[in-house]
Specification:
The complex is a heterodimer of chains A (350) and B (504). With 350 residues, chain A is mainly alpha-helical. Chain A has 3 domains: 97 residues, Arc Repressor Mutant, subunit A (Orthogonal Bundle); 139 residues, no CATH class; 97 residues, Arc Repressor Mutant, subunit A. In chain A, 59% of the residues lie in helices and 2% in strands. Chain A has 17 helices and 2 strands. Chain B folds into 3 domains: 192 residues, P-loop containing nucleotide triphosphate hydrolases (Rossmann fold, 3-Layer(aba) Sandwich); 177 residues, P-loop containing nucleotide triphosphate hydrolases (Rossmann fold), CATH 3.40.50.300; 85 residues, no CATH class. In chain B, the strands form 2 sheets. In chain B, strands 3-4-2-5-6-1-7 form a 7-stranded parallel beta sheet, sandwiched between helices. Chain B has a 6-stranded parallel beta sheet with strand order 8-13-12-9-11-10, sandwiched between helices. The mean pLDDT of chain B is 89.
Chain lengths: 350, 504
C-alpha cells in the first residue's frame, strides 16, 4: 500500500466517522482554523498537521475511493462524506503499522511553521561553512531571500572564529545530534546538503537514491527535522552553533502576514473596535486573525475579548460535548457568540 | 591603460571574446552602440566593463526577472556589492531603501514595468547615468519575436535622463529588427557591432520521422549514444517531466527535468547539479538556459519545434562554448507545427476576452487603479494567462499615459494582437521552411540574418544536408562513478565541513 494511503487510513481511523473526509484534507494541508486545530487535538492527529501542504482535494478523494473499494473503509449511509473503518481495514492497518510504525518525532502542529525555515537555515549554513572551510568564495547560494542571508550573517558574526574551527564544530554538533535520534537515517538529511563542489539532491532524488517511496521520504525528512528541533529545544547547552537555527523565531512569525499586522496593532494597544477601520477589513476578518493569534501565540491573552465567566461556561459546554462542535456549544451557551467560542476553544486546545 | 589589463584586473580574463572589445571601445568613445553578440559570449561584460571606467552609474534595463536576479548574483559573487535589482520582487521597504540610496549603486538593474512609476523616474533623474544599457533589446521591436509593449517607453525614459550614452544588446535580431531598435530608442547615429550568428563547432541536424513513437524511440537512442552532457528542449512541461522520469527509469545516465513549474529550491539545485557535473542530461523547457554558463555542453536536442529560428539559435548556442565539437539535433514529425501555433495563440488574449475586458473596465472604473495598474481580479475573471495578462497590462499602461480613451485603446489592442499573431505565424512558417529546406542549414540561417555565407566547415561537421557524421558526437568518455562516499553520511559530512588538506 502506498504510504500516502496508509496515512489517510490512519487519519480516518482516528476520526472514527465523526468528521468528514475533508477535515483530513484541512488537517494535512495545515489549515489554521479553530475547527481544524481542535480536531487535531481531539482525535490525536497533531502529528500530521500540515505535512502535505500541496495536497489537492482530488488526490485525497482518490485515496479514499480506492480504500473504500478495497473494503478497508465504509461510507456512511446518512452522511456520505463520513467513513468508518471496517474490520478488515482495522486488521490491515494494524499489520501495516507493525511493519512501518508511525514516525516518532513528527509533530506537525507544533513545528509545521518552523520546519521550512529550519531547513532553509541548515542548508545555507552548511553550504556557506563548507565553502568557508575550503576557502572558496565564488558560489551560488542555494537559498535566496534577504532575511535568511541576514540571519546567516548574524550567526557567522556571533561565532567569529577560525574557519577550520567552525567547520569542525558544526560537524561535531550535527553528527552527535543525528546519532541521538533513535531509528533515524541520517542520510535522509545528509543527501540533501550542499557544500563545496557538491550540490545536494532534491527531495525526489534523495528518495530515489534511498529507494524510498517519495511520500515516505518526505515524512521521514520532516520527522528528522522535528527531532532536530526538539533536541535543540531540550538541550540547547549541547549545541552552540545549531541552536541558532531557532534564533529569532518570533512567535508571530507563524501567523499569516495579514494576521501578523493585526497582532502588531494589538501589541501597540489599539483596541479591537478600531481595528476594522484601521486595517480596512471586515470585522469578521479581524476576528479570524485574532483566533489565529490565540491558536499560535502561547502567551496571548483572550481575557479582553471574552469575559471570565463566559469563558468558564464555554469550557464547561465544550467538555460535555464530545465532538466540540461549535453549533452544540452555542446552543448551550446562548450568551456567547461564535467568535468568543472559537477563542476559548483555541486556548483550550493547548 | 590597456583594456586587456583592466579586463584582467576586474574580471580575471586575459582575452576579450569576439565583439566585446569593439563594443567597449565604442562606448568609451561616447558613441551610442548597438551590439549583436551571440549568447554565451559575455554580453554583460559590455556594460560592466565601461562601468568601471565611467563616472556615474550604469542603468541596465532587463526584461526577465530571473535573468536579472542571476546577473546580480553573479556580480555579487565576483565581489561587486554596488549592484541592485529594482523589480517587483522587492518589498516596499527594500524598494524605499534602495530608492533613497540610489547614488550608492554602480550598477542598477531595472525591469521595464518599474519605469511606469514617476517616483522611480524622478529618482533616476537625480543621479548621473553614464551608460543606459538595454538588454535583450529585440524586445523593443514589433518585428522581434519577443516584443514587450513596455519596452516602447524606453525611448522616452532615455530622453528624460538626458540622452545618456546608450548600449542596445541582443543575441539575435534580423536587419529589420535592428533598425526598429535604433528608431524606438531615438538613436539616429549609432555604432553597430554585429558578430556572426554562426557557431562553427556546432553541427546542425534535422531528423524527420513519421510518427511520434518513432521520434521518441529515436530520442531514447540518441541519449544513449551521444556524448553527454546534453540538454533536451521541450515545449511542454509535462512531456519534459515524463521524459526525464522515463529516462531515469531506463537507467540512462543522470537525468532531471527543469521548468518554470518547479519550486525555486529545486530549480536552483538541478541547475547547480548540472553545472557541477552531477547530471548528464536536462529535460528542459525554454525556461532553462538563461544564465547557465556551462562550457562543455556537447549536444542540444529539440524534441519539439521552436517557435522561431531566433529561439532555436539561442538554445542551440548553449552547446559547445568551449569550442569543442558539439551537435544540435531537431526531431520533427509531420504535424509538429500544431503545437507552436497553439502556443503562439495562447500567448495572446483573444478578441472576445478583450471585448469583455474593456466593457468591464468601462462599467466598473474601480478596476482601474492609480499608476494605471489593473485589479488582478479581472485577470482571474477573464481567464487570462500570465503572459496574456502582462501584455494587456503593459499595453494599457503605455497608452493610458498618453491619455487615449478606452475605446480607442481597445481597437488598437485588437489590431495589435492580430498583427502579433500574424507575425508569430510567419515566424513559425519560416522555422518550418528551414526544416523543409534542402540547402545547407548553416547557410540558410546566415541568410536569414543577412550575413554573407562563406563558412568553411567540413561536411561531416556541418549539417545533415552537407552530410554530417553523427558518430563524431558519440560517447567516448566513460561515465564517472563517484557515489560510494556519498552514501556514508558521516564521512560525507566530514568531507563537507572539515578540510583535511588545509594548512594548519
Amino acid at each position: 500500500m502506498a504510504y500516502f494511503d496508509l496515512i489517510i487510513l490512519y487519519c480516518l481511523k482516528q476520526l472514527n466517522g465523526e468528521r468528514t473526509i475533508y477535515s483530513v484534507y484541512h488537517l494535512l494541508k495545515g489549515k489554521k482554523s479553530a475547527q481544524t486545530i481542535q480536531d487535531a487535538h481531539l482525535f490525536s492527529l497533531t502529528k500530521f498537521f500540515g505535512v502535505f501542504m500541496t495536497l489537492t482535494r482530488s488526490s485525497l478523494e482518490e485515496a479514499v475511493h480506492s480504500m473504500s473499494k478495497q473494503g478497508y473503509i465504509l461510507q456512511s449511509e446518512l452522511e456520505p462524506q463520513h467513513y468508518t473503518m471496517t474490520e478488515k481495514g482495522n486488521a490491515f492497518l494494524e499489520l501495516l503499522l507493525k511493519e512501518r510504525p508511525l514516525p516518532v518525532y513528527l509533530d506537525g502542529l507544533k513545528y509545521h511553521p518552523l520546519t521550512q525555515l529550519v531547513w532553509e537555515r541548515i542548508s545555507i549554513l552548511v553550504q556557506v561553512v563548507s565553502n568557508l572551510v575550503y576557502q572558496e568564495n565564488k558560489y551560488i547560494p542555494i537559498q535566496k531571500g534577504k532575511e535568511i542571508h541576514q540571519w546567516l550573517k548574524n550567526v557567522l558574526r556571533k561565532h567569529s572564529m577560525d574557519r577550520a574551527e567552525i567547520g569542525k564544530k558544526l560537524f561535531n554538533e550535527l553528527t552527535s545530534c543525528l546519532e541521538r535520534g533513535e531509528g533515524l537515517n541520517p542520510l535522509v538529511l545528509s543527501l540533501r546538503l550542499t557544500g563545496h563542489q557538491i550540490i545536494g539532491l532534491t527531495s525526489m532524488q534523495a528518495a530515489d537514491e534511498l529507494k524510498m517511496e517519495r511520500t515516505a521520504y518526505h515524512i521521514e525528512f520532516l520527522n528528522l527535522l522535528h527531532f532536530l528541533i526538539q533536541d535543540l529545544e531540550k538541550n540547547p547547552e549541547s549545541y552552540s552553533i545549531l541552536t541558532d537555527l531557532l534564533m529569532e523565531t518570533d512567535p508571530s512569525l507563524v501567523l499569516t502576514l495579514s494576521s501578523r499586522k493585526t497582532y502588531e496593532l494589538l501589541q501597540r494597544g489599539i483596541p479591537f473596535e478600531k481595528l476594522p477601520s484601521i486595517r480596512r477589513l471586515k470585522k469578521s476578518t479581524i476576528e479570524d486573525h485574532i483566533v489565529e493569534i490565540a491558536l499560535n501565540v502561547k502567551d496571548f491573552s483572550i481575557h479582553s475579548f471574552v469575559k471570565k465567566e463566559v469563558q468558564g461556561e464555554i469550557i464547561g459546554a465544550a467538555k460535555s460535548s464530545p465532538t466540540r462542535q461549535l453549533k452544540t456549544i452555542r446552543e448551550s451557551v446562548p450568551q456567547a457568540n461564535y467568535f468568543e467560542i472559537r477563542l476559548v476553544l483555541a486556548k483550550l486546545g493547548e | 591603460m590597456e583594456l586587456e589589463k583592466i579586463l584582467y584586473q576586474y574580471f580575471g580574463y586575459s582575452y576579450f571574446k569576439p565583439g566585446q572589445k569593439e563594443v567597449i571601445t565604442s562606448i568609451l568613445e561616447k558613441k551610442h552602440t548597438l551590439a549583436m553578440l551571440p549568447t554565451g559570449t559575455g554580453k554583460s561584460l559590455c556594460y560592466q566593463f565601461p562601468g568601471y571606467l565611467l563616472e556615474g552609474a550604469v542603468l541596465i534595463i532587463s526584461p526577465l526577472l530571473s535573468l536579472m536576479q542571476d546577473q546580480v548574483d553573479q556580480m555579487m559573487k565576483m565581489g561587486e556589492k554596488r549592484v541592485i535589482a529594482l523589480n517587483s520582487f522587492l518589498s516596499q521597504e527594500e524598494k524605499r531603501y534602495a530608492m533613497n540610496h540610489l547614488d550608492q549603486y554602480k550598477f542598477i538593474f531595472i525591469s521595464p514595468e518599474m519605469v511606469n512609476s514617476d517616483w522611480v523616474v524622478n529618482r533616476l533623474q537625480d543621479i548621473k547615468v553614464s551608460l543606459f544599457a538595454v538588454d535583450e533589446a529585440h524586445c523593443i521591436s514589433q518585428w522581434g519575436y519577443d516584443f514587450r509593449p513596455d519596452y516602447l517607453k524606453l525611448g522616452e525614459l532615455r530622453k528624460k535622463l538626458g540622452n545618456p550614452i546608450t548600449l542596445a544588446l541582443t543575441a539575435t535580431a534580423t536587419e529589420k529588427v535592428r533598425e526598429d531598435i535604433l528608431n524606438s530608442l531615438g538613436l539616429s547615429n549609432a555604432n553597430r557591432v554585429v558578430t556572426t550568428v554562426d557557431r562553427p563547432n556546432i553541427a546542425l541536424v534535422v531528423e524527420k520521422w513519421n510518427r511520434y513513437n518513432e521520434k521518441f524511440d529515436r530520442l531514447f537512442q540518441l541519449v544513449q549514444e551521444l556524448q553527454p552532457p546534453g540538454i533536451i528542449y521541450f515545449s511542454s512541461k509535462k512531456v519534459a517531466d515524463q521524459t526525464a522520469s522515463f529516462l531515469r527509469g531506463k537507467g540512462v545516465g543522470r537525468v532531471m527535468a527543469y521548468h518554470g513549474g518547479m519550486e525555486q529550491e529545486q530549480r536552483i539545485l538541478v541547475q547547480q547539479q548540472f553545472l557541477n557535473g552531477q547530471l548528464d542530461i536536462i529535460c528542459a523547457t525554454s525556461a532553462f538556459g538563461m544564465g547557465v554558463n556551462k562550457d562543455n555542453i556537447r549536444y542540444v536536442v529539440h524534441f519539439h519545434m521552436p517557435l522561431q529560428l531566433e529561439s532555436y539559435l539561442q538554445e542551440v548556442g548553449r552547446a559547445g562554448r568551449d569550442k569543442g565539437p558539439s551537435v544540435a539535433i531537431l526531431l520533427y514529425v509531420p504535424g509538429d507545427e500544431q503545437l507552436p501555433f497553439q502556443l503562439a495563440e495562447g500567448e495572446l488574449p483573444s478578441s472576445a476576452q478583450l471585448d469583455w475586458f474593456f466593457s468591464s473596465l468601462k462599467s466598473n472604473p474601480d478596476f482601474l487603479k492609480e499608476n494605471s495598474t489593473i485589479s488582478p481580479d479581472l485577470r482571474k475573471m477573464g481567464g487570462f494567462t500570465e503572459v496574456q495578462w502582462r501584455l494587456v497590462e503593459d499595453f494599457l499602461s503605455v497608452h493610458l499615459i498618453e491619455g487615449i480613451p478606452l475605446e480607442l485603446i481597445r481597437d488598437k489592442m485588437k489590431r495589435f494582437v492580430e498583427e502579433r499573431l500574424a507575425s508569430k505565424h510567419t515566424n513559425i512558417f519560416k522555422m518550418k521552411t528551414w526544416i523543409d529546406s534542402a540547402e545547407c542549414r548553416r547557410l540558410n540561417i546566415l541568410q536569414y540574418f543577412n550575413e554573407n555565407g562563406d563558412t568553411q566547415i567540413t561536411p561531416s561537421q556541418c549539417c545533415d544536408i552537407c552530410g554530417v557524421n553523427l558518430q563524431n558526437y558519440e560517447s567516448r568518455v566513460p561515465q564517472e562513478g563517484e557515489k560510494e562516499e556519498y552514501l556514508m553520511w558521516k564521512g560525507f559530512l566530514r568531507k563537507l565541513l572539515i578540510n583535511e588538506s588545509a594548512p594548519k
